[in-house]
Write a structure and sequence with these properties.
By secondary structure, this protein is of the alpha+beta class. It has 3 domains: about 25-125, Butyryl-Coa Dehydrogenase, subunit A, domain 1 (Orthogonal Bundle), CATH 1.10.540.10; about 130-235, Butyryl-CoA Dehydrogenase, subunit A, domain 2 (Beta Barrel); about 240-390, Butyryl-CoA Dehydrogenase, subunit A, domain 3 (Up-down Bundle). About 45% of the residues lie in helices and about 15% in strands. Bound molecules: flavin-adenine dinucleotide. InterPro entries: Acyl-CoA_dehydrogenase, Acyl-CoA_Oxase/DH_mid-dom, Acyl-CoA_Oxase/DH_mid-dom_sf, AcylCo_DH-like_C, AcylCo_DH/oxidase_C, AcylCoA_DH/ox_N, AcylCoA_DH/ox_N_sf, AcylCoA_DH/oxidase_NM_dom_sf.
């Protein structure tokens, strides 16, 4: 038996170039991949250092307006940054919430003063904003959220409610909270978005003991009569779902990119292992039972990349409705491809698939995040059944 040791040289298979990507986007891919590789090969790969370096290079706010310190590009570019970092094994999960959801919403609907206050920090990464919509009793049914804002005398807001699974609240200076106003307390959700600074009195957080090994922890939040100034509200309180989805479509595209990066990373490791590991006459990668599922995973990831690109382009064109369907489909396709890719990669490494040294076992849990969040596989299938196919609802 030839033992296979070491974890070096795990460069993932490069995605095949697509005719839709510009020369600048390809150059960005190459540069981000190089940063990720340097970071992943470093001995004390510290995600905070990577966050700072990526911020300094302009990658974290590549989608935000230039006049507020961003790169002036779009979600297409931000997704590409997350995918390439993930493909090197060092994804930055908070890219999904801080510049993609919060940055987009503020850039599109914030006042001039709000943009000046928050965007430059989000753009260079010196300021992080978390995002909380999920509630313990509402779950996938966002229309049931009960976090409520009431007007206090003088125009302040007072916010009360609970949130769960909110990522990175400890790392973030602020959290954007989705609530509803008192006079829209019941019925279909008319969401309002409030920015809550971390140390505001009444804003409590408790970390949830997750099975994930990542820099970003998830928190349960309690908002107990949290008093906020009038301009904590971003956008119009009567705007309805439009403002929220302006942030949630990018979130789905970014989760797809997160899944694609992880899937590529896993396949890259497995392919390298399968080329070298030999227990009979030929390397295990010569057995079609090992090769075909890896080929299949590669194909599925490539297909999901195309859908992700389509969704990102629609977001960047401002076609919120078209982007809604495409972003859901992209998130679905990428998450499913990622879960299958990780499963096959772990299997390819046999026992080593579950060792810490090879770093694949932890991805079994991490890959499931993309299937559950920010919207579960079933809720996307429901959406496509109803919205795209016109089938009746069961709920
Ligand atoms: C690592 C991680 C990070 C997260 N980060 C954030 C964050 O930063 N901010 C935030 O707000 N939230 C965050 N979330 C929460 C995430 O968005 C929710 O977990 C997700 O929306 C599912 O909600 P739930 O967990 O309440 O599941 P539930 O809604 O209870 O669903 C449980 C199961 O039932 C299924 N189900 C529910 N309704 C239906 C139906 N009508 N038809 C078919 N099946 C159905 C679901 O698909 C799922 O499989 C995070 C979650 C995780 C795991």
């Amino acid at each position: 038996m030839t033992p296979v040791t070491g974890t070096s040289g795990t460069t993932p298979p490069a995605p095949s170039p697509t005719p839709f990507e510009t020369a600048e986007q390809r150059a960005l891919r190459t540069a981000v991949a190089a940063l990720g590789r340097r970071h992943a090969e470093g001995h004390d790969a510290d995600p905070d250092v990577l966050w700072r370096e990526a911020g300094k290079a302009g990658y974290l706010g590549v989608n935000l307006p230039e006049e507020y310190g961003g790169g002036g590009a779009g979600i297409t570019e931000l997704a590409l940054v997350l995918e390439e970092l993930g493909a090197q094994g060092c994804p930055l999960l908070l890219l999904i919430v801080s510049p993609a959801i919060c940055g987009t919403v503020i850039a599109r609907f914030g006042t001039g003063e709000q943009k000046r206050r928050w965007l430059p920090g989000l753009a260079d990464g010196s300021r992080i904003m978390a995002f909380g919509i999920t509630e313990p009793d509402a779950g996938s049914n966002s229309h049931r959220i009960t976090t409520t804002a009431r007007r206090a005398p003088g125009g302040d807001w007072v916010l009360s409610g609970r949130k769960v699974f909110v990522s990175g609240v400890d790392l973030a200076e602020d959290t954007m909270i989705v609530g509803r106003t008192e006079d829209a307390r019941t019925g279909a959700l008319k969401p309002c978005l409030f920015v809550v600074p971390r140390d505001t009195p009444g804003f409590g957080r408790t970390p949830i003991d997750m099975e994930l090994r990542a820099r970003e922890r998830q928190f349960e939040l309690v908002l107990d009569e949290v008093r906020l100034p009038a301009d904590a509200l971003v956008g119009d309180e009567d705007a309805g779902l439009l403002q929220l989805f302006a942030g949630l479509n990018p979130e789905r595209v970014m989760t797809a990119a997160f899944a694609l990066g992880m899937g590529r990373y896993a396949v890259g490791k497995a392919v390298r292992y399968a080329r070298e590991r030999q227990v009979w006459k030929a390397p295990i990668g010569a057995h079609q039972a090992i090769a075909h599922p890896l080929a299949q995973a590669h194909i599925e990831l490539e297909l999901a990349r195309l859908m992700t690109l389509k969704a990102a382009l629609l977001c960047d064109e401002g076609d919120d409705e078209g982007a809604g369907e495409a972003a859901n489909m992209a998130k679905y396709a990428a998450a499913e491809a990622c879960v299958r890719a990780v499963d096959q990669a772990v299997h390819t490494l046999g026992g080593n698939g579950l060792t810490r040294e090879y770093g694949l076992g932890r991805l079994v849990t991490a890959s499931r995040v993309a299937r559950i969040a920010p919207v579960s596989r079933e809720m996307i299938l429901n959406y496509v059944s109803h919205q795209s196919l016109g089938l009746p609802r069961s709920y």
